[in-house]
Amino acid sequence: MSSETIQILIAMILYMAVVIGIGIWFAKRANKNSENYFLGGRSLGPWVTAMSAEASDMSGWLLMGLPGVAYWCGLADAAWTAIGLAIGTYLNWLIVSKRLRRYSVRANNSITLPEFFSNRFREKNKVLMTLSALFILIFFTVYAASCFVTCGKLFSTLFGTPYVAMMIVGAVFVLVYTILGGFLAESASDFMQSIVMIVALVVIVVLGTITAGGLGAVIDNAQSIPGFFEFFGLATPSLNEAGEQIVREGAPVFGEKTGYSILSVCSMLAWGLGYFGMPQVLLRFMAIRHEKDLKRSRRIAMIWVVISLAVAVFIGIMGRAVYPTEHLTASAAENIFITLATNSLPAILAGFVMAGILAATISSSDSYLLIAASAVAKNVYQGIIKKKATDKQVMLVTRITLLAIAVIAMVIALDEDSVIFNIVSFAWAGFGATFGPLMLFSLFWKRLNRSGAIAGMVSGAGMVFLWKLVISKLGGAFGIYELLPAFIFSSICIVVVSLLTAPPSKEIEEDFEAVKNGSAE
């Protein structure tokens, strides 16, 4: 191991030690009871709420997946995705956050998403709670796998070690940390990690642009590639039989640009719809200390999101100018941030920048693991199987579930050629279509009943799988991102089934009116 590699390792170890320290600091408070462990006792301030929500949401794909897409095929896919996410972030904070904070208190002080949906409809047989927990478990396991892939790629690229071994090491670290500190530690470290992430992005984009010869050189290079620097065109890397991009006379070879239709734009913008169903973000709305703090949180979140997304996309564009032939597959392209950091910075500083990727990964994977475990322990075990379970028993089941989820996610992440962006897109669609329409109708439509809620949840999740695995294979107009048709289909099912079945009870309508009029009591 070279001296530069050792310096990078030391910097990352120091960073990881700080993260573990945060977990230890909050461990006693977090383990006081299950509400503190899962929701931090509704004690988050506006800064931590905003920054931890966005850090837990963005994950390693912000530093690897999104730049990788831009590096591989140009501006369009990455930019329209980023625009959709920015719009979705704003609308989620604007129209969902305040009413969900209020409604979760009214709904018997719900501390998890399945519990909120179940209490919202005052159900006795807990069908909504069980289904919600099941879908959270499925999609968050996939999400956690994407984070473990990020860990594996990061460590194996940096240290020249086997991918699988490094993926497992990263997964174990995240698991230990999550078990230790719970929601408070997760949120506090996410706040720190959101700062690390945005600093790392800005530092690399500035240094990379200088290395490329300035902003003009970056743009000139991008414009020289057919479709690469267009909002309504897509670059097409020419591949050999091994699936690698062809290099000729030291330059990457591209074919004719691919057209980019309005339908493709809508497909990428649909990423923004996912926010309405993201448990890791919605939980922050529920956990904030005061409803009045949400306005400030929204402003903080939007500044962070716009800067980080714009810089991440530009890193991919700029990376093509600096290292045009370094990464020859879509999977390898996701390492462009690592390549830029390790070649542009002194080793010790590169280590801290690499900690930005680790920060993004940890901030997301601990959220995913914790929410999935809470769905099983709090909602299935205590909510259905053993209703008189003590907090100690719930915490034990939580830790066992965390371990099981992590193991399954590691199995999914064994494939070294996995593309982080693709894994994340499927899980994002799953949550967006399963919970997004239901959340909006739950908060804003009085006529919604339990039958409509169940129909919307099941139809949304089912359509994600059907569209992704079957319908999208037809190509053409059917090749759009599965979140868009699944979100629409779920919304239709919610409305139709609710109108065809009995209206909600008087008590449910009274809850809705009270929340609408500003009361959580």
Major beta sheet summary? 2 strands, antiparallel
Helical amount? over 70%
Radius of gyration: 23 Å
**Total number of strands:** 4
What is the chains' assembly state?
A: single chain
Q: Compute the number of structural domains.
A: 1
Give the helices and strands as they follow along the chain: HHHHHHHHHEEEEHHHHHHHHHHH
The name of the CATH architecture is Up-down Bundle
Question: What do these coordinates show?
Answer:
The structure is a single chain. The chain has 521 residues and is mostly helical. It has one domain (3-415): Sodium/glucose cotransporter, CATH 1.20.1730.10. 74% of the residues lie in helices and 2% in strands. The protein has 20 helices and four strands. The protein has a two-stranded antiparallel sheet. Strands 2-3 form a two-stranded antiparallel ribbon. It is globular. The mean pLDDT is 87.
Gist of the model:
The chain is mostly helical and 521 residues long. Helices cover 74% and strands 2% of the residues. It has a two-stranded antiparallel ribbon.
